[in-house]
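The freezer alarm interrupted the setup, so I double-checked each line after restarting. Inputs confirmed:
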Amino acid sequence: MNLKRIVALAWKEWREIVRDRLFFALAFIVPTMLMLIFGFGLTLDVENLPFAVVDHDRTPASRDYAYRFISSRYFDFKGYADDERTIDRLLADNQVRVALVIPPRFDERLSRGEPAPVQVIIDGTFPMRAQTTQGYVAAINAAVSAENMAQALSTARGVPLAEARARVQPVKLEVRYLYNQSIKSIWSMAPKLIMLIMMLSPPFLTALGVVREKESGSIFNIYSSTVSPGEFLLGKLAPYVLISAANWFILWMLCLSVYQVPFKGDPLFFTLASLIYVVCTTGFGLVISMLVQTQVAAMIITSVVTIIPAVLYSGLLLPLSSLSPGASLIAHSLPPMYYGRIVTDCFLKGAGAAELWPDALVLAGYAVGLFAIGYLLFSKRPKS
Amino acid sequence: MTTETAIRVDGFTKRYGKRLAADGLTLEVKRGEIYGLVGADGAGKSSLMKAIAGVLSFDGGTVEVFGTRIDSARAAEQVKQRIGFLPQGLGLNLYPDLSIDENIDFFGRLRLVPADVLAERKRVLLGMTRLDAFRNRPMRQLSGGMKQKLGLVCTLIHEPDLVILDEPTTGVDPVSRRDFWAILGRLLEEKGVTALVSTAYLDEADRFHRVSLFHEGKVMGEGTPAELVAVVPGTLALFRAEPQADALPRLKARFPQTEAMGTWLRVFAEGLDATAARAEIDACLDQPAHPVGRTSVRHSLSDAPTCRTEVRPTEAPPIRLTDWFAREPELEDVFVAMLRQRGAKLESVFPEDGLTPHTSSAPAIEARELTRVFGDFRAADAVSFRVPQGEIFGLLGANGAGKTTVIKMLTGILKPSSGFGMVAGADMRTAGWAIKERIGYMSQAFSLYHDLSVVENIRLYAGIYGLDDKAARVRTDWVIGMAGLAGFENDAAGRLPMGLRQRLALGCALVHQPQVLFLDEPTSGVDPIGRRVFWDILFHLSRREGVAILVTTHYMGEAEHCDHLALMFAGKVVADASPEQMKQAVTAEAGQLLELRVDRPAPAQAALVAAGFASAVLHGRAVHLLSKTADADLARLPGVLDAAGVQLQSVQPRPLSMEDVFVHQVSALEAAQRGTP
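Predicted 3D structure, all chains:
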């Protein structure tokens, strides 16, 4: 190992990254941009659903019923529609996602104590959103029914309204959400985005950076010189690891400032684990770069190898416990899941080394393994 | 100079998958030699050079560098500090975003050259290569010649004992090429460095002390350039014969290596001295029909008539021979003869297509003040020329001189910034599809679909040009016959050898019988046989079918095939005449080319320049110079050399090559530019 050669390599690499517009953007702009775009665009909360009402009854009772929805923060009232045909058009145009149709004689049936059906039409193109919407509708409807019943009880039996309410709902749920008290999806999403972006950016940078030299032929400067493989890998990859580490820090700060996610864990452990993760994902890029000859191939393989594990097998969109046994096995054999757990638990659960050291250890094993494979695959005297 | 061996290669074999790239190569390079590997693309040069540099493993044979056997990565490491390797591709191994300074520093630090030594070497090398004025310019903004010189400096910065340079001159203009050879020669002489250099240009062979001729993974011959030329003895005859079209087939029947070069005929009379060659050629032309007397030498292929349709024994017109020159053959003639002896076929069969030739008195192509500006860069600057129907017109120039830009404007692909181009009588700025059907275009990349078969490629182009089914079938047969593709009809285009692929691309450009043909660098990377057959086809097209052909090339040797030439430099046409006129103009202006054989060429060249022979350049072990007053100079030369302690062995007049012409014209132009900034 000769430090001078490593420094010469790293210095050359650094200047190339800074001066090449594409690499500059990839290194310094894309990670932050991804964080902002995904953070604001990928919110899973279902709120402000646009909806319309067709009121065939037009009585105070029907207006009162509709008002319960209009005043909810989950719904965004777009107005009354004349008939169902109008509703069809509004749904087809994506102007509303939900519609209530209150039939004639709604008030009359209620006052007679008969069941009064109300039709709810929900846009089912997004199953998860549709189910959540149905839940909101059912909850509001249940509240309305309970209130009506309490009022009826109160007038019939002459008990005070408060007591009547308690009788109608003998068991009352008291829900408290732990770790993410207001169940804001961004609180759980933003930390996982660090996992996702740090799974994408370092491998892309590294794979393209190495393969670029193979494609242009400048790799022969390395092959034909007395630089050892270890010196080359250290000098070549050091700038990428450093840049990625800086990016990780920026993303962390973005989570805290822009998305206001609380950080409850141990910053020192989190930093250490994150650096291991960055080295590990850089190793992915290194191994890919040893296997392909062109930048196009490097892009395609890197996309497949990084995006799929980071999105599907990391707990980003689906909870890990809901994966099938096969999928769970895949998830456990890839690094994003482990760092996903580290980042979520550090942010929201306040966990530290005591709870998460096995995950950090797995990542370290990965990093060592990938670099070992990259080192073995690198030959200064290849077959072609 | 010691006689110790620097490189010893024995039975070197290299495969890439199923393809055999090098097949039992053997050669030996002595210390202090400039050793040349000469051959076309895919001949195995790069594989061997990489193996010697220790950056490629191989399948068979042994490679020894400075006594170390390169049989493992570990063994290769032992000699790498003593080797400098410049891979193929102009400037591709350099870092485009780094400046000249930074590039050199990187190479120096990688090789652990101490800072003070590095600074000193850098100063000397940059001075010698005249790059010192551009030290802070990013490499991507350098011209081809500058990139090449920077590559050389970076390769030499750790003062290796052996430099391996893979095609350092490909795609560089002749002036920069000459400059490069001069610098390389001087550096190697001063430091006693051994050099292994490859080139695709056969006419560069005499830059080397010794040469190996490569062809399809084999060494065809080894020795000094003079020894190689002597392998196949014979005479090169240059003359005119009227009518040329009748003389050509008769000569070809007897001398397979007969070529038409504009109005000239060029015949390599194998095994004959000048007198015998003249006698045979005369006999050939006097005879009403073939075959003529076969006396001293029999050729395996000369028995077959080459152009069956053109033999008319009954109505033989008298053929008049004029302007006779006989001289020793060039290496390329000898190389082609060697390949023929090994069974390579040189003839092209040109199927008659029963069409009346295109005739027109109006120029087929006319460029008038064509200008194209990209930002503040003038890629083409007021380019004007005319090409009559039935003429082969050559556009010469280095990479980046503006040749491709001009072709693109003439074919209507690119809009001119000002001026205009007329093709087949139509203004290409406004020409519709109908006029484009009269144009054929073959690009540098051979515009073929590599995964389609030969027939599918031809049918595709027939479809693009709207040929009906019957016409498409007729033309497909014609193309297959013309390109010699019979038997390859169903092979994927990508798997064809380079020469065949090139002729298929030409066939595709000709499928709709255009009257004007544009060819952009059609012969890059093709071996000499492939190039000859290709030019033969072009000649037939222009003479028999009256097709006007505009061709660009950076092989200066090929320029002699053209009827008319335009020399481009930095976007401008700097000369516009026939090859013969150009040579005459240079001779009139600068004098006769003399070749001096001396015992120590480098000091001889320096002494000659100092004594006022500004044109003196190193040419392998010889020095070339232009002399206006040959008699007076011949008297002066021994004195000048004697004063420098150099012994003059011989002086011989040499014919000017197109490269000499180009170098002279451009040097004069550059000098003029410096004079009036």
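Quick read of the result. Chain B has four domains: 5-227, 234-341, 365-577, 580-674.
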